[in-house]
Amino acid sequence: MSSILSLRQYTHDLLVHSHHHAQLVFGLTGCLEFEVDGLGARVERQTLAVVPPDAQHACGSPNGSLCLVVDVPDENWLRQTLGRHFDSGRRLLEEPGALSLNPAQSQLVSWIAASPLTDDVIATQSAGLLLASLVAPAQQAIDTALPLAALDAHIDQHAAHPLQVADLARLCELSVAWFHARFLAEIGQTPMDYVRSRRLRLGRQLLLESHLTVGEIAARVGYSSQSAFTAALSREFGVTPRTLRSSRE
Description:
Elements: E1 5-10, E2 15-17, E3 22-29, E4 32-36, E5 39-43, E6 47-51, E7 57-60, E8 65-72, H1 75-82, H2 86-94, E9 97-100, H3 103-113, H4 120-135, H5 138-142, H6 148-157, H7 165-171, H8 176-187, H9 191-209, H10 214-220, H11 226-237, H12 241-247
Antiparallel strand pairs: 1-8, 2-7, 3-6, 3-8, 4-5, 4-7, 6-9
């Protein structure tokens, strides 16, 4: 097993084998014909196949397909990754078959598939997010929306200091993995992308409404230098601090 998470291209060639680890196969493009322990399934977009440990399985794709595959290393990894959701995760991986994804889960799969999965840290964390999104209690999935106003207030209050996803997850009383999945599904951005955008919007507001120097504003919104803030502001809004300042005159 070379990587916990990988993209795999399947062809019309029939692949028949088994392995000691559990596996999840998420469809991205095309259709993969799958059979696990005699149970047939079609893996395509918004579906996945569950392959329990040591289960004999066969697969092939008449017209080619691309899938995102999670190879679960062992139960120790699963326990460390899922925490209190470990039992639910183990039950999920014990039953062969096909499952459908909801729109939020499907969006998460697409986002992860576009990430640099050759990075071991990204691959491992992304695999954990996928599993968490599948096994977290159903009630969490239907709870009210994330408290965005409280999150915004926390970001604004601590904009000058380092912020971690764990800080925001605690405000919502969610695990980091489940908060990340919920946030991406509801907001359409990762939490840290949202924090960066929020900081830059605050910086733009200060440029327009205050007489602070650009360096002082950069420090207030968490940038280590005026040049780093200027570059980030230009990428986000297509303007420099000088241009914004001149527009208010």
